[in-house]
């Protein structure tokens, strides 16, 4: 080895210089500035020092956007009580023996019912490697079953018990005792899942460990919307365990991995990448995964019935005109190519050039038009009445992810808009942000109407309420910021008429759309404390706007609504919100903190 030149290690390559993207984005990589170079004009972000902990968010995070809206921090007082946090980190985590864990398994009819609910929900079922043969084998010989597999089953029961509480809320709001029972079961199932992880020494990896961890994370941070900080730390740990187990390398490299196991590994790794990106965007921090060390191919469009543990060779994927539970996972994985680059440029110190933004936008548009399966593209189908409610919701989810990505890419111009002599680039960026935000709020209105009793999506009301609305909150913050300083953004009437037809009166349209959105949040607040928080913040923003137009006949007494909802009832906390396909209802949580200053 003496005298040999040292090779360049992969760690010296920037994620933005990924060779696989060179033909699409050849100019994205930039050399590192010299240490004595002039300081970057970019905002370095926000560092909050509080008694509850220290937190950092990037300059284009929603928190930074909302702190620019006057009146929120002054008019709202937040609860300093911290969120519960992950049970893996802060639970009692009493060690349990195998015998104690098996004694806690409910009777089979109860487990059958709960697992059926879990799989019907399509929340995390694409990651599950639980098979009918394994399930039957467990009931035949529980003591001979892997403790990690039992932990995976308990994590699914945890999700199902939480879903039951949502169903009870939507069917009979007075069924308090039944709901309390479901909550107790949920906590017990989660405790047992964590005890199984500890007993199996989960940090060393092994079968069913990752499935269990992802299911717990989904239950805590997607459905329950607990501390997003813990979710970001947990997904990082999950990714490191997965890489320790080789999930970042395609299974075809390793002949000992069966076709069934290899395909399940691809599904699981794709889900991990998506959660990593979503939680990183939520926290306003860099993602853990980069393209320099990953070659795992995406999963195939297959039904679970198309292959099993005895399959010698995987069948050809089904055409993407045919829906499977895996198809949305595949579609979002393709969007990650562009969304990941957006996350990278938003967390870089240097401000990206407008040419770079245009190149990423072109890639995003190309993926949206050509790589997303037509079955999941909103504009490419006629939405017949034969479409299932699940397909409609998945279609909306993919579509709003696209519009959210455009906001994340262009919103820097909206935040730093000078207003005196804006460039054409600034004007175009603002237009894209506003149009995308309006599209998202139009989806909110449609979903809300269709999820009412007797509506087409009534049976999925829990999913719309607890999962989908994340993107709505990003759109809301952008539109509120625009309305606050509408005079700065509005063009002269002569110029406006020469632009798109809607731009001349876009401020009025935005007010109307936000007023509709406010009424939706207000209606949802009867069953959701977090919806009440959003309604309260919108009351203040719209109330300030209406105060400047006393002759408006469409206005109503926002302050009366505000006074009718005591602040202590809503339990404000300091959790951050994901900017991915997750939990929008906690949108104003962190930005409404007093910050102790």
UniProtKB/TrEMBL annotation:
Main subcellular location of this protein, as a coarse class: nucleus
Residue stretches making up the Xylanolytic transcriptional activator regulatory domain: 231-305
Keywords in alphabetical order: Nucleus
Residue span of region Disordered: 1-46
The name this protein goes by in its record: Xylanolytic transcriptional activator regulatory domain-containing protein
Compartment list: Nucleus
UniProt-listed InterPro entries: Sec_Metabolite_Reg, XnlR_reg_dom
Matching CDD domains: fungal_TF_MHR
């Amino acid at each position: 080895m003496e005298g040999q030149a040292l090779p360049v290690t992969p760690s010296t390559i920037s994620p933005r210089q990924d060779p696989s993207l060179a033909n699409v984005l050849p100019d994205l990589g930039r050399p590192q500035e010299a240490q004595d170079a002039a300081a970057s004009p970019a905002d370095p972000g926000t560092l909050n020092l509080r008694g509850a902990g220290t937190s950092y968010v990037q300059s284009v995070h929603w928190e930074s956007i909302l702190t620019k809206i006057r009146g929120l921090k002054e008019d709202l007082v937040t609860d300093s009580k911290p969120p519960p946090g992950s049970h893996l980190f802060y639970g009692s985590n009493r060690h349990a023996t195998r015998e104690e864990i098996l004694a806690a398994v409910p009777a089979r009819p109860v487990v059958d019912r709960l697992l059926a609910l879990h799989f019907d929900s399509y929340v995390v079922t694409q990651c599950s490697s639980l098979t009918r043969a394994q399930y039957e084998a467990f009931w035949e010989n529980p003591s001979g079953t892997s403790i990690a597999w039992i932990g995976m089953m308990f994590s699914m029961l945890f999700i199902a018990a939480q879903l039951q509480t949502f169903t009870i809320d939507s069917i009979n709001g007075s069924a308090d005792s039944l709901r309390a029972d479901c909550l107790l079961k949920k906590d017990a199932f989660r405790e047992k899942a964590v005890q199984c992880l500890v007993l199996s020494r989960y940090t060393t990896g092994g079968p069913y460990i990752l499935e269990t961890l992802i299911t717990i994370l989904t239950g805590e941070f997607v459905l329950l919307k607990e501390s997003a900080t813990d979710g970001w730390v947990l997904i990082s740990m999950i990714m490191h365990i997965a890489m320790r187990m080789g999930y970042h390398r395609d299974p075809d490299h390793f002949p000992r991995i069966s076709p069934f196991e290899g395909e399940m590994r691809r599904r699981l790794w794709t889900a991990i990448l998506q959660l990593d990106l979503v939680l990183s965007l939520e926290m306003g921090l860099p993602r853990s995964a980069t393209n320099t060390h990953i070659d795992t191919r995406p999963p195939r469009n297959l039904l679970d019935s198309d292959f099993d543990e005895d399959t010698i060779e995987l069948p050809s994927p089904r055409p993407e005109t045919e829906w499977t539970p895996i198809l949305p996972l595949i579609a979002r994985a393709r969007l990650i190519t562009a969304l990941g680059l957006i996350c990278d440029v938003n967390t870089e110190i240097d401000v990206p050039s407008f040419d770079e933004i245009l190149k990423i936008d072109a890639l995003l548009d190309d993926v949206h038009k050509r790589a997303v399966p037509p079955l999941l593209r909103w504009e490419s189908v006629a939405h017949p009445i034969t479409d299932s409610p699940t397909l409609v919701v998945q279609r909306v989810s993919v579509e709003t992810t696209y519009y959210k990505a455009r906001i994340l890419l262009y919103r820097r111009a909206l935040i730093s808009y000078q207003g005196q002599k804006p460039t054409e680039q600034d004007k175009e960026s603002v237009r894209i942000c506003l149009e995308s935000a309006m599209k998202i709020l139009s989806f909110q209105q449609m979903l809300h109407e269709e999820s009412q009793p007797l509506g087409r999506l009534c049976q999925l009301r829990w999913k719309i309420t607890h999962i989908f609305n994340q993107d709505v909150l990003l759109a809301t913050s952008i539109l509120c910021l625009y309305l606050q300083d509408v005079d700065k953004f509005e063009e002269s009437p002569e110029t406006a008429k020469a632009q798109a037809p809607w731009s001349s009166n876009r401020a009025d349209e935005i007010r109307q759309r936000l007023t509709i959105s406010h009424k939706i949040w207000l209606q949802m607040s009867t069953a959701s404390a977090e919806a009440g928080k959003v309604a309260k913040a919108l009351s203040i923003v719209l109330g300030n706007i209406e105060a400047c137009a006393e002759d408006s006949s469409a206005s109503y007494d926002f302050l009366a609504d505000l006074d009718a909802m005591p602040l202590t009832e809503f339990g404000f906390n300091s959790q951050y919100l994901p900017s991915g396909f997750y939990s929008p209802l906690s949108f104003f949580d962190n930005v409404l903190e007093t910050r102790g200053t």
